[in-house]
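User: Can you model how zinc ion sits in this protein?
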Amino acid sequence: MKKIIRNGTIVTATDTYKADILIEENKITAIGLNLDCTDAEMIDATDHYIFPGGVDPHTHLDMPFGGTVTKDDFESGTIAAAFGGTTTIIDFCLTNKGEPLQKAIETWHEKSKKAVIDYSFHLMIGEINDEVLQELPRVIEKEGITSFKVFMAYKNVFQADDATLYRTLLAAKEYGALVMVHAENGDVVDYLINQALAEGKVEPIYHALTRPPEVEGEATGRAATLTGLANSQLYVVHVTCAEAVEKITEARNNGIDIWGETCPQYLVLDQSMLEKPDFEGAKYVWSPPLREKWNQDVLWNALKNGNLQTLGSDQCSFDFNGQKDIGRDDFSKIPNGGPMIEDRVSILFSEGVKKGRISLNQFVDISSTRSAKLFGLYPEKGTIAVGSDADLVIFNPNSKRTISSETHHMAVDYNAFEGMEVTGEPVSVLVRGEFVIKEKQFVGNAGSGQYLKRKKYGETSLIED
Ligand SMILES: [Zn+2]
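Assistant: Here's the modeled complex, given as structure tokens:
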């Protein structure tokens, strides 16, 4: 059935204008003033913005970590994402050393069958050897996985050595993929954690104090230097602090192909949250940690001036009761991560656009378009254009809502933004022309999300069906 959205204001990464949108067979087939169409379902978007569906480039759903598994799986996680205006996620597929990459990819395909929005995977590279190098071309060509994640932290768990990072950068250059790094100096962090524990410092705040901004800045600079040496390309996930922004800015100014992501939590929360009494600080334990408040301005400015380009949620949710409390007597055992997938877009709009820190078009670029472009999903995803997928968010820019675990749709028992009032919210959300959220009600189906094979890094293409 055809649909037509009338009377709304279309917002893309470059333009804002009033027009009708015609949807046929999952695609946008016409955009124009007073489109002539009588046999379509009419959706009235008077006084609403229409954004391209959000693209969240950084999620961890149904992921094992520290002896437990994230609370949100691909069903609850993608339902929450949809409520928040996100229609595509790229989740991190974890690999195990010594096992074929394909085995890990199949595990992730199995987990993600329940998704209600579209999804793709980044692939973790923990080691490089002949077997891994042999598999990579197939992973890119057959699976359409064109981004690889290397952890510079989590010693003895995920951490890769510098040679692995460097060889991954070389392989990415050769095959057309983008390397992503978690940039913290894991060896130094490991030393600082052991030293703190030996001194009896076990409370959640020591999570932040044993991962100081210097170790993030150092790792970011090292990764940037290796990227330049390999003449490759790099995407730094979850940038939190001035030290890391400086390294990215410097590398970009030197012509290195490097991109930076931050997350909503770093834009609005700060290190003092980890000092909350009664172990409540554990709700705010993730890596890199929250920083001193003044870093928030640094991050906002970097988004505004383009030295950071994207916003990922780093969704990685654990219940406060029953999961976070694994680390009640030892901060290093607190599962790292927070529930962020649902409020990512709202916080960027409310704190960014409404407070004059970024423009409306920058908001669309940061929350959707740029990630679609960097990760080979554009222009099917990330924009509103004839031929694009009809992934659309009908957004009320003026309604107010208070974020709370009482009303959120994530499966987790707390919300890190509890009590925060945000202006603007998605009213209806379509994925490939079908409602997933209609008038703030979930109307989608588990399993309706499609796996997306992605284009190679930097590969542009015309819209085709
Ligand atoms: Zn992450």
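A couple of observations from the model: Residues 58, 60, 314, 316 surround zinc ion (CB under 6 Å). The chain has a mean pLDDT of 97.
User: Helpful, thanks.
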